[in-house]
Amino acid sequence: MVEFKLVLADGPSSYARSVNDAPAAGFLGKRIGEVVGGELFGVEGYTFRISGGTDRSGFPLRGDLPGGRQQRLFVGDGFGFHAPRHGQHRRRTYRGGTISEETVQINLTVEQRGKKPLAELLQPAS
Question: Which of 65, 85, 106, 107 has the smallest C-beta neighbourhood within 10 Å, fewest atoms?
C-alpha cells in the first residue's frame, strides 16, 4: 500500500491532501517537473507540476539525480545547503527525482486552473 501526502501550492496559500492506493499509484514513476492531472486526487479541471518532495527519512528529492535511490553529493551553496562562508562545501544526502515507494511527500504547484477556486475544493493546510 502506497500513501503520499500532497502539498498543493497556489500562490501564497497551500493545501494538504493525503492519497493512498489507486490514486497514489498514479504518481509512481513520475519525475520532478512532470505535469499531472488533478483528477488523480479529486481536483477536476486542474493540472499540477511536480516541484519536489521528501522521502521517509526526510531527505529531499533532487530533480537532477536519476532514479529513486539515495545518493550523497558534495555540494556548495545552493539546493539543500546554504554555505555560511564563501567556498564552503558539504556532503549531503539526497534522493533521486523519480517518485517511488520511499517517497512520503510530494510538492505540487498549480499549472492550469479549473472552473472552481482551489479553496472551495480543498481545505487550507495548517
Answer: 85
Domain assignments of the chain as residue spans, ordered by start: 3-64+99-121
Q: Which amino acid is at 22?
A: A
pTM of the model: 0.88
Tell me the one-letter amino acid at 86: H
- Between CA 120 and CA 126, with CA 125 as vertex, the angle to 5 degrees is 135
Burial class (CB within 10 angstroms; exposed 0-12, middle 13-18, buried 19+) of 88: exposed
Q: What is the pLDDT of residues 25-78, one digit of tens each?
A: 889 999 999 999 998 888 889 999 999 999 999 999 999 999 989 999 999 988
By the 8 A CB rule, do 97 and 31 touch?
A: yes
